[in-house]
Amino acid sequence: MMELSNIAIGDGLPTDANKLNDLNNRATPVGDDPPTSNPAAPHVERSKPQLLYAINENPEWYLSIFLAFQHYLTMIGAIVSIPFILTPALCMSDEDPNRGIIISTMIFVTGIVTYFQATWGVRLPIVQGGTISFLVPTLAILALPQWKCPPQEELDAMEDGAREELWQIRMRELSGAIAVSASVQVILGYTGLVGKILKYVTPLTIVPTVSLVGLTLFEHAADTASKHWGIAVGTTGMLTLFSQIMCDVSIPVIAYRKGHGLEVRRFQLFRLFPVLLTIMIMWGLCGILTATDVFPPSHPSRTDVRLNVLTSAKWFYVPYPGQFGWPSVTLSGVLGMLAGVLACTVESLSYYPTVSQMSGAQSPPLHAINRGIGTEGLGTVLAGLWGAGNGTNTFGENVGAIGVTKIGSRRVIQWAAFIMVLQGVIGKFGAIFILIPDSVVGGIFCVMFGMIIAFGLSTLQYVDLRSARNLYILGLSIFFPMVLCPWMQQNPGAINTGNETVDSTLSVLLGTTILVGGLLGCFLDNIIPGTAAERGLTEWANEMPLGDDNINDGTATDYDFPYGMDAIRRWKWTYYVPFLPTYKLKKEN
Prior knowledge:
Elements: E1 6-10, E2 13-16, H1 17-21, H2 61-89, H3 98-119, E3 128-129, H4 132-142, H5 152-157, H6 160-190, H7 193-196, H8 203-216, H9 218-225, H10 229-245, E4 251-257, E5 261-267, H11 269-272, H12 274-291, H13 307-312, H14 331-358, H15 366-386, E6 393-394, H16 396-405, H17 410-425, H18 427-434, H19 438-458, H20 468-490, H21 500-510, H22 513-527, H23 532-535, H24 537-540, H25 565-570
Antiparallel strand pairs: 1-2, 3-6, 4-5
């Protein structure tokens, strides 16, 4: 990598001149050049990501906080939307103050797991958060006859204590199903079993799995954006303007430097904070339109439409395990929730190589992948025990945020985790940002979900798109889930085997697009004949280790633990532990 001279863009803020003013000259490694069967073939260098901060580069603490806050704002809308969908299915009333506790619990656990994942887990700059993949089986479980809510008239006639027990017993059922099913993910990761199946997770498995995340969420983005299309389109346009068109525009700022006094420096505001700027400007515009009554009362784009959430939120509350009662476990609940666990596992396996490229990290070795999946499962177990009503998974919105902002620093995600934990304890803090209008969030989603689709499709660079075989697999694995899964969700009684547990499990499995698409792509790519080069395995092997073929040569230091590596390298037994950085490390002669 070329040497870059340091300058300062703010008071005490060291950065790289070429990072901010000549990013096109930066060469961040994506992986080794693919092997070729013709030694005389000309060398073609793959285009590489242009980053302001790569995975191990740490902005100053105050800049990191702002960048972390940007990640927080990116994920808060999506995380909060899950409890708002979940709580009515739990038979909770809209005025129940426990809604705020569930939101705080989910964000609190998310912060803890995010920090542990980025620091000791897979060590990539990823945010762990609630996921739609768990919401689908959750709603399927709560739709079972024994968990359906009573008629509204009966609910209104209940006393507060009976109404509280009504939703808490359902939360305990979900908590047990989430915690027990996630133990499968813990076992897959920490025992190294997930590494055994990596050789079957090919580019044509990754493409439908990641792409269908964005394609499946288009209705959610449309619903939020349709609250006011003018605000939503303006948000999308402004984010495009800041992140793509004005990204190289610097603004002058006055800064003080010790020994030199005041001086004018150039600061690339639009490249560093496109999402944060967009949200603040459009939120402010909605505030003006609210104050002038351009938006009528109760309009979803008003900034005061959710003031009751702010007023009912507690100032200080520390979530704790079993706060709604200790979880209960039933076979139907565990088997149904297992679909969400499997979908999240495939989805995260798809994100790891993508995020490593986006953040300028080395290709993820087998031990990091094992540790990442195991840590994600452990986080979901904790989320179940805490009563979050959802699991944890690699957050797609923040993967998209890295692509938009070009900030791949691990330190920024660690600060974001701290903000999430703080918000989970100080309820009023998080409630303020729940006031962001839906139309603004919808405009952000249009960009973020689109980025997820694009990153999924970018994996096609490894496969031969002139192959009729590959085109058949690609088309079927993307289109068929978009036909089958919505129909299954709209017709929950379509499967009737006479066994409710089997019926609900199959309905959940066949109603999850990313699971159906990923498994279909994986199955077809592994049974339909094709050469390794045609399937993209030759080049893909440089990006993602393939099962036991991966040899840990000790060069992927981005995934080493922050402390204790000297001791781990001295202990030879650690070479056989699947989740330690020395796993399968080559012995020196």
